[in-house]
Amino acid sequence: MSIDVPSLIGAVTREVRNVEREGRTARVVLATRTYDTSVEDLWDAISNAERLPRWFAPVTGDFKLGGKYQVQGNASGTITRCEPPKHLALTWEFGGGVSWVEVDLAKDGDGARLELRHIAYPEAHWDQFGAGAVGIGWELGLLGLYLHLSNPSQAKPPESDPAWGATDEAKSFMRASGDRWGEAEAAVEDREVALKRAETTKKFYCGES
């Protein structure tokens, strides 16, 4: 697989916010990207069980409000908001912890804008890895979604191939993403701490830790 890393990194807007959730301070990792498609097609791509494995991962469950889902080899949870074709929210339950994912879609010129927010309480994992821990992961997903929309017939996400993950191209993408998430976090956290976390996260994703 050959990708234009600078162009793809530049297509995503990143932000880290501090918010209050249920009386506790929480962090919001926010990624926004516009795709060359309609809102309706983008909604179908993120909610259709037949399309999800082509850019993300196999997902099983009941795709409706209150339904339970399971991402193969990853998180599970409950769908807490489902308003086609614009709003989706769910719990993200993994490794004994619970966080929250919210996705909003909107028309953006001739395309469709996706805004993804991952909300979590800053605990030990955040202290070590910071925003990039989920930021890089979701950005790989946004890359997969871009590739899927460019070639909908493709059966498997190329970025999920371990062989690609070991390439210089993949590492360049993940390092660039990690750098941007470090800068986004530094806007709301101590800069030295945020950038140190970003370095730890980049090494983890690139298999260097």
What does this entry look like structurally?
- The model has no long low-confidence stretch (mean pLDDT about 95).
- The longest helix has 19 residues, at about 130-150.
- The chain has helices at about 5-10, 40-45, 50-55, 125-130, 130-150, 160-165, 170-185, 190-205, and strands spanning about 15-20, 25-35, 60, 70, 75-85, 85-95, 95-110, 110-120.
- It is α+β, with helices and mostly antiparallel strands and about 210 residues long.
- The protein has an eight-stranded antiparallel β-sheet, covered by helices on one side.
- Strand 4 (about 70) and strand 5 form a beta hairpin.
What does this entry show, briefly?
The chain is α+β, with helices and mostly antiparallel strands and 209 residues long. The protein has helices spanning 5-10, 39-47, 52-55, 124-129, 132-150, 162-165, 168-186, 191-205; strands at 13-21, 24-35, 59-61, 68-71, 76-83, 87-94, 97-108, 111-120.
